[in-house]
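Revision sheet: structure tokens.
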Amino acid sequence: MTALYAFLTMLLLACSTTKTTTDNAATAVTPVTADSAVTAVTAVTFKPVALDVVRDSTGFVQAMIEFYSLSGDSLKLTAIEGSCRCATASVQRPLAHDSIPGKFFVQINAQHFTDPVNYVDFALTTSPATQTVFRAVIRLPH
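Predicted:
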């Protein structure tokens, strides 16, 4: 549990906005540990792999995200937290298998974003114990 708190603290510090010079979305499926950064893919995959959207005129982003178990075993989403106060998420369907998706709904208030490209991460905790990150890329309109 301490590793999760350390990770979430790190995300909160890095959340607000991040400038980038590329248009590539980052990998969305990554393990999270206290000692390592991004390594191999975990037993969870998302549809879409990463949320990459342009903020609308109201400044809000909403999306339903599906997740699947890659191992074929049942997977239960037990917690999900956004990396900043601008992001919330709610579990819609906590159980997932390899062919039946679990679902969660994300909402991001991007009104205060000023950089052309901004990142918001969602930390997911599943049972059996796995910590995974889903990334949302929010772009400002041209």
